[in-house]
Design goal:
Blueprint: H1 2-24, H2 32-55, H3 63-77, H4 104-127, H5 130-151
Helix pairs in contact: 2-3, 2-5, 3-4, 4-5
Bound molecules: ascorbic acid (ASC).
Ascorbic acid is lined by residues 45, 48-49, 52, 141, 144-145.
C-alpha cells in the first residue's frame, strides 16, 4: 500500500518536472520551425554578444575567449537556418515578419552578408589586433541590423 503511494507520488513528481521543463524550455516541439530558427539566432547572439561587449569595454578583454566566440559565431552562422523558414511557419511564437516569405531572395542575400562578415571576424579575431576586431564587429553588427530593420518585429506577432 505504502509502496503504491510512493510510486504514485513519484509519478506525479516526474510529471510536474516534465511540465515545468516544458514551460521553461525555449524549445517547443509543436512549433519546430520557429524554435529551430530562434535557437539559431540565440547561438549567434550568445557568441557575437560577448565579442561586442569586449570591444565596448563592458567585459574584460580575453583574447583566447574572443577567438573562441568568433569561431563559434562563424560556425553557427553556417547552419542551415532556412530549414526554419518553411512555408506556413510565419504563424506561431515568432517575430519573423511575414514579408520574409515574399522577399526570400533579399533575405538570403542579407543572410550571406552576415555569414561573410562572421567568417571575416573569425580571421581577424585570430590576428589579435583590437582595432581591427572592433572595426569588424561594427561591420558584422550592421549585417545583423540590416535584416532586423526589415524582417524582425519588435514584439511577438501572434
Ligand atoms: C548583438 C545582437 C544582435 C546584434 C545587433 C547588431 O549583439 O544580439 O542582434 O548584435 O544588435 O545591430
Amino acid at each position: 500500500m505504502k509502496k503504491t503511494l510512493y510510486a504514485a507520488l513519484l509519478t506525479v513528481a516526474a510529471g510536474a518536472t516534465a511540465l515545468s521543463f516544458q514551460a521553461q524550455s525555449h524549445y517547443d516541439d509543436k512549433q519546430f520551425p520557429q524554435s529551430y530558427r530562434q535557437s539559431y539566432f540565440a547561438l549567434l547572439a550568445a557568441n557575437f554578444g560577448p565579442i561586442a561587449a569586449s570591444v565596448k569595454g563592458e567585459i574584460p578583454w580575453d583574447q583566447a575567449r574572443i577567438e573562441g566566440w568568433a569561431n563559434d559565431f562563424s560556425a553557427a552562422s553556417e547552419l542551415n537556418v532556412m530549414r526554419g523558414f518553411v512555408a506556413g511557419s510565419e504563424k506561431g511564437t515568432t517575430r519573423a515578419k511575414p514579408v520574409i516569405w515574399e522577399n526570400t531572395e533579399d533575405f538570403n542575400s542579407k543572410l550571406s552578408d552576415m555569414r561573410e562578415a562572421a567568417a571575416q571576424l573569425k580571421q581577424i579575431a585570430a590576428g589579435g589586433d583590437k582595432e581591427a576586431i572592433a572595426a569588424q564587429v561594427g561591420v558584422a553588427g550592421k549585417t545583423c541590423k540590416a535584416c532586423h530593420d526589415e524582417y524582425k518585429a519588435e514584439n511577438y506577432l501572434y
